[in-house]
Amino acid sequence: GVEKYARTGGIRLSGVIYNGRSSRDKPETARCFARQVGTELTGLIPGSSLIGEAELLRKTVIEAFPDSEVSGCFRAIAQQLLQGGLRCVPTPLSDEEVELLCQS
């Protein structure tokens, strides 16, 4: 989608954010994906029960738990995005490339 809209609207990708969801997740897969499409890993969101708790409260994790580690991760990513940096038109991967990446 980014590559499509980059041609006509000047849209650029600022990176990939890794969203940790379980102990089986591998941030290295997200890093590899980012490299393959021509960008970088912008940040990591650790798996946290506070995210679900905040959703039940109908709040963001920053609103519900402002001093938590996971809120700090969101703030760090926001700060990095606001500072600019690498913005690219990503190189799309084929279905086969994505499948191979997920198997590694």
Which secondary structure elements does this structure contain, and how are they paired or packed?
Blueprint: H1 2-9, E1 16-19, H2 27-37, E2 41-45, H3 49-56, H4 61-64, H5 69-82, H6 95-103
Parallel strand pairs: 1-2
How would you characterize this protein structure?
The chain has 104 residues and is mainly α. Helix content is 52%, strand content 9%. It has a two-stranded parallel ribbon with strand order 1-2. α2 (27-37) links the parallel β1 (16-19) and β2. The longest helix has 14 residues, at 69-82. The protein is globular, with a radius of gyration of 16 Å. The model has no long low-confidence stretch (mean pLDDT 88).
State the share of residues found in helices, binned by percent: 40-55%
Strand proportion, as a percent range, falls in 5-15%
Order of helices and strands: HEHEHHHH
Number of strands: 2
Shape: globular
**Assembly of the depicted chains:** single chain
C-alpha Rg (nearest Å): 16 Å
Q: What can be said about this structure in brief?
A:
This protein has helices spanning 2-9, 27-37, 49-56, 61-64, 69-82, 95-103, and strands at residues 16-19, 41-45.
